[in-house]
Write a structure and sequence with these properties.
4 helices, single chain, about 180 residues, about 25% strand, flat, alpha+beta, two-stranded antiparallel ribbon
């Protein structure tokens, strides 16, 4: 009977010397800022980029703000005793202004050769695991998949149904970029 309590005591000491649980685990990946990946060009066509890079483009819509305001046309009139003689008259003026121009944006994307049935199925599974895709995995790049891609990327600063390379990396579908020295 003395062996068992001694063994438990030694095991407790050994465990006490260990690092706290989870301290050896790598940090969780951070959410990518896909807006940092966007390239805006003054000339048409894809950017000149690294050898073998593939690009996708999308168009950001023009954003227009409509402002309506009440403008005093005729002020109120009051008598010498302060009584209201005539109420003020207002007119509504409405005008619009462009908040953001429509523009073409470019971003790195998985190359066409990578878009296999297996790749799309993996994309659907990755989006499903994160709650963006709710339908059965088919391996077909359909409207529901594109909408899920757009929702995933919108949360990260890119409003496009076309999968960016940075989003594919975050989803674990493309190798991480190697830092160059």
């Amino acid at each position: 009977m003395t062996r068992r309590p001694m063994a438990m005591f030694l095991a407790g000491i050994a465990l006490a010397a260990c690092k706290p649980l989870g301290s050896h685990l790598p940090e969780a990946p951070t959410r990518a800022d896909l807006s940092a990946e966007l390239i805006r060009l003054s000339e048409p066509g894809p950017p000149r980029g690294p050898e073998g890079a593939c690009w996708a483009s999308d168009v950001t819509p023009m954003m227009i703000e409509t402002v309506s305001e009440q403008v005093l046309e005729r002020p109120e009139r009051r008598g010498p005793d302060g009584a209201l003689i005539q109420a003020a008259v207002y007119r509504t003026e409405t005008h619009q202004r462009i908040v953001q121009e429509r523009e073409e944006i470019w971003f790195r994307a998985p190359c066409a050769a990578e878009w296999t049935v297996d790749f799309v199925a993996s994309l659907q599974r990755a989006l499903k695991a994160r709650g963006y895709y709710l339908l059965p995995v088919t391996g077909v790049m359909d409207r529901a998949t594109a909408e899920a891609v757009q929702r995933f990327q919108l949360d990260r600063g890119l409003d496009s149904p076309r999968l960016s390379l940075a989003a594919a990396r975050e989803l674990g579908l493309a190798p991480a970029e190697i830092a160059r020295r």
